[in-house]
């Protein structure tokens, strides 16, 4: 799972730029949040991996991203997702959304 991550720290505008996101996979809260504090570079980072799971079994899954307001508001912008399926014949299938 990939998101867009902001790096601006302009507090005078009230823009939200801190990121703290929890993940729930198939009804189970995952052990680690993704957290990022802006570095003040005034840019957006794209293609930032915020969640990865290499132990999923084939089948339908539901992943829920939830912004956490631990120290105030948090920013969440989905960028894209990808999955890879390796079958018994060692060929790989890769999809990007």
Describe the structure.
A hairpin with a 5-residue loop joins β8 and β9 (92-96). Strands 2, 3, 4 and 6 form a four-stranded antiparallel β-sheet that branches. A three-stranded antiparallel β-sheet has the order 5-1-7, with no helix packed on it. A two-stranded antiparallel ribbon has the order 8-9. It is mainly beta and 97 residues long. It has strands at 2-6, 19-25, 28-29, 34-36, 44-49, 63-67, 78-80, 82-86, 92-96. The model has no long low-confidence stretch (mean pLDDT 84).
Summarize the structure.
The chain is built from no helices and 9 strands. The protein has strands at residues 2-6, 19-25, 28-29, 34-36, 44-49, 63-67, 78-80, 82-86, 92-96. 8% of the residues are buried.
Mean pLDDT: 84
Residue stretches low in confidence (pLDDT < 50, at least 5 long) are none
Largest sheet: 4 strands, antiparallel
Work out the number of β strands: 9
**Oligomeric state of shown chains:** single chain
String of helices and strands: EEEEEEEEE
Features of the shown structure:
mainly beta; 9 strands
Write the layout of secondary structure elements.
Layout: E1 2-6, E2 19-25, E3 28-29, E4 34-36, E5 44-49, E6 63-67, E7 78-80, E8 82-86, E9 92-96
Antiparallel strand pairs: 1-5, 1-7, 2-3, 2-4, 2-6, 8-9
């Amino acid at each position: 799972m990939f998101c867009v991550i902001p790096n601006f720290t302009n507090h005078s505008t009230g823009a939200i730029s801190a990121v703290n996101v929890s993940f729930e996979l198939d009804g189970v809260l995952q052990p680690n949040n993704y957290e990022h504090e802006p570095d003040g570079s005034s840019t957006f980072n794209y293609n930032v991996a915020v969640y990865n799971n290499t132990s999923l079994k084939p089948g339908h899954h539901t992943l829920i991203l939830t912004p956490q307001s631990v120290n105030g508001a948090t920013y969440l912008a989905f960028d894209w997702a990808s999955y890879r399926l390796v079958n018994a014949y060692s060929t790989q299938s890769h999809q990007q959304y």
